[in-house]
Request: fold
Amino acid sequence: MTVDGNAHVAEVEPRLLLLHHLRENLGIGGVHTGCNTTSCGACTVHIDGESVKSCTILAVQADGHEITTVRGITENGVWHPMQQAFHEAHGLQCGYCTPGMIMASISLLKENPDATEQEIRDGLEGNLCRCTGYENIVKAVQLVQQHTDELAQHAAS
Amino acid sequence: MTQAPEKFVGGGVPRKEDPALVTGRANWTDNIKLPGMLTAVFMRSPYAHAKITSVDVSAAKEQPGVVAVFTGEDLLDEYEKHPRENPAAVTGYDLSLHDRAQGHSVTGETDGEESQSSEETTRSFVAWIVHDELKIPHHDPVAHDEVNFAGEPVAVVLASDRYKAQDAIEFIEVDYEPMDVVTDLEEAMADGSPLSHEDFGTNEAYTWDLATGDIDDAFSKADVTVQGRYLQPRLIPNAIETRGVVADPDPVNGGFTLYTSTQVPHIAKAVLSSYCGIPEQRLRVVAPDVGGGFGSKLNVYSEEVIALVLARKLGVPIKWIEDRSENYLATIHGRGQVQNIEVAADSEGKILGMKVNLLADMGAYLHLNTAGIPLLGAFMYPGVYTFPAYSFECIGVYTNKTPTDAYRGAGRPEAAYAVERIMDALAAETGLDPAEVRRRNFYEPFDEPTDTPAGIQYDSGNYQLTLDRVLELADYEGLREEQRRRRESGDPVQLGIGFSTYTEICGLAPSQVLSALGAGGAGWEMAKVQMLASGNVEVITGTTPHGQGHVTSWSQIAADVLGVTPDDVEVLHGDTAIAPYGRDTYGSRSLPVGGVAVHMAAQKVVEKAKKIAAHMLEASEDDIEFEGGTFSVAGSPDQNVTMTDVAGAAYLANNLPEGMQPVLSEEYFFDPPNFTFPFGAHICVTEVDTETGFVKIRDYFGVDDCGPVINPTIVDGQLHGGIAQGVAQALYEEAVHDEEGNLTTGSMVDYLIPGAPELPNYTLERTVTPSTSNEMGVKGVGEAGTIGAPPAVINSVVDALSPYGITHVDMPASPWKVWQAIQNAQGQQAGTRDADLSGRPSQAPDSTDTEGGSVS
Reply:
């Protein structure tokens, strides 16, 4: 599989969750374990561009696919606009749900760029945050909707 | 270093914590991997109460990858037999007291005689001895003779990886002899109840009371009395990062480094060194990045002990990461009270007296503050209202459930809920508007310490101001008009308007007061501010942030005092090797104690720097002015040196005033003279669908006063999250146990943590009433929302349903409970009696009318 642009070949037990493969075998500590039962979304990554909770699938099921984690969306040190927006909107506190929340949010806007506030809230239903009360997370997503280009420029500067 | 003419306190400085967090580069405990490290997995009891008759681990030891398996009995020699008394470890810890009060021993036999044998030393994690007669159960990290709650550890497997350790658990055979289980608080106090700890002969852990004024006189003179019986469901904190620990032995000096996802590395260091018999100076505790706590990581746990003692025993690093189901079972729960409250008032709605009686669920064991949590509430039931007589009694009750302890608010949300619910009852009884009845009982605005009915002093307050402003903000008149229209038109979706005018006790704590309450003392906090030779700044703090943004806020505080920018400042925390002294983060204490310490330490740096500047400028110190990072001679602004110059000179030490020590590095220990008392007024607007029972929060308004604000963005964030957890308590969350003591809401599927669709936006404003408890006037904000929100939400739901004659709905006000309340009320011809809203007969409200008119 390809993870954040790097090809990895490994032999793994059939039962190994993708989450644990990413964390334990590939050392990607930016994918977080929250529940192991597909409830909290902290482990959300993209597989071939679609958001997936990495505790939901087995590592072997991801064989041959392209995985993107939160570490892979920063390009040449420039944050993805969603990372910048979470920072600017104070969409995180402890930050543990944040990588998953950012990956889910990117995917949400890819599918529905003009999502309404309610659609954003519904779209992030599978990602739990215990710190922010969600308002600033929603604002972060809206910030990206409004200022994608502007943010990208700002981050680059 | 940047010369900084501007000020940063009060500005929304972007968080310095964020870059690592948004890029997935933070350092969580589970990210730590050390050579030779073994993973621990615990086997846990499926029974809430049982004798352990045998544990056979022989087959488990043979499984692939397994290095060792230990039963509870195997580990008994690993704990310190005679813990050296350490005031920092178990504040108020007194072994003789333990021996007297605990009444049972490791062997499980009643301790009728003097316990002399080393086998019989009581071990527990208790830090708050609320009462001389407090009964303290013996608490081993891994049970060996009896289990007292479902989820208690009974064996531990060490293996090369987690999957293999988990596999081996399946091969452990434990024989249990089930015992009778007690879960309900009122049943636990009834004669003949099963006993959580049979040796005590009772489930009562302690009774604690407080009385001021003449309560009988108050009630005899009353024109009206109202009473309520309210239930505080147990809550599960659910930090998204579970607990986790890595214990790393140092073979050279025999010491250990313990990485643990905790709010309290300093307290953990003291408790663990005492419990495990590791000299305190050889134990370093590090809290890496911590993914939320909410009180659940304000504790020291069995798994931390086991990781340490097994790292010592095997000489290799040991890692344990909690899984989510363990987090539900084995991390402390919050709340869990039955509250009876009664208020006497005159015909004008002026309160004459208040009586409060609580049953508080301890669960099966005492953790650090289990027994003390209800006492934090004891002082806060009078809330923002002043009156002449108050009586409070709390009975701590043992049950066969997970121990309770601090969950965000810790005792104060319970108090605010009961008093704010009863104020609505008083409004209904007197025919006054809920805002008016509150106003009539407020203190006049005050800016110096003022006595309260609970015998403490509030620091400052202006409750009218927050209430007036929130009424405007919400357009209260407009809302009432809309409510009238909807009621008249028979709209199936009714509008509810709910108030909460709360205050809370923060800034834990004056050491002498803690001591008087049985919590030992040490409520101070430490800060060290050091200017490096470059002129850059290091702030070392004893607080331990886990989402609160101390790195940013402490940088702002230090920057303003020193005349630099926040970027010039690095804040170091969460490591007992960097900050040997500290009392950690909980109870909204970090800013009003720890942040103030940073401010004071930075001022000490400026005082010393001023002396050096005067020496460098060959001027009198009295003539030196300091502004924007520059020292200058009064009247001669061209004669100046910068803070950077002074820092360099202080470091080189080749031209200092005679007798002065080199470098600019100053420490300050702040022991606050009083607590702080933030306050606010909230209005929750709900739409209640009377056909489905579904409650939607349409708007949430809050006007809060936490004194001067360091970073408004962070403060708003704390309020958002706090209100969200308060709403969660009011509408969604409840830990439910069946009669056998099984947690039936033991996963994120069964326990409703609200997601983005369930929660509203928050419309917030602030007033600023400086505290008199510290030089900065700051009060703290971490728990305000969690304390203010639950009564605002429930008052709103009840307000919407009041045309049905419904006067109370217990938390969480689920669609089922609300719908059932409506059905019952309609079945009773919209009478004034309460419905059984709990669905459980044992929790049916007492509906006996009293002369004054029972309202709940």
